[in-house]
Design goal:
Layout (H helix, E strand, L loop, with lengths): L20 H31 L9 H25 L5 H20 L4 H40 L11
């Protein structure tokens, strides 16, 4: 996990071959942020599993929402894991996390059963889900930009055939 082993990428290393200290600190902060988000969602999932009706218009209403939130937690945990590893492939789970957060906000709002529930869903989307999704998109974009910058600094990979014809 120190970034110097066989699992580290040239793109997340500095010119000297070791991970830049500020990059390591930033990645750890991001990892703890995503870890906290995943842990915070676990009680929410338990709450939904207990309180949602077993059946609404769909036979598997409760299972659909609890399952969806479990997928969301998985994406968040995967994002945290890759941030801890300072893995440039964090773009993939961060993008999945953002997508799931947007979908969660949309369905929370559109399936709310009353005006009060709709207002609650809009507030939660505005305060938590949409900002978290935008942050995840920013993270994916920022990591992509940094990987490209580091690749330019380090030069082409030894087995890279170079630009095409």
């Amino acid at each position: 996990m120190d970034g110097d082993g066989p699992t580290s990428s040239r793109a997340d290393q500095g010119i000297g071959g070791s991970l830049l200290p500020e990059s390591r600190r930033r990645a750890r902060r991001l990892a703890w942020l995503y870890t906290g988000a995943a842990v915070a969602l676990l009680p929410w999932i338990a709450y939904l599993a207990i309180t949602l009706p077993r059946r609404d218009l769909d036979r598997h209403y409760r299972a659909a929402w609890v399952g969806f939130d479990c997928f969301l937690v998985f994406a968040i945990v995967r994002t945290a894991y890759m941030a801890f590893r300072v893995d440039p492939r964090i773009q993939f789970p961060a993008t999945a996390t953002a997508t799931l957060l947007f979908v969660d906000a949309w369905f929370d709002i559109t399936t709310a059963g009353s005006r009060a529930h709709t207002l609650e869903a809009i507030i939660l989307a505005a305060i938590f889900e949409i900002p978290a999704a935008l942050f995840s998109i920013h993270l994916a974009h920022d990591v992509g930009r940094r990987v490209i910058e580091m690749a330019r600094i380090n030069g082409p990979l030894p087995d890279d055939p170079g630009p095409g014809p």
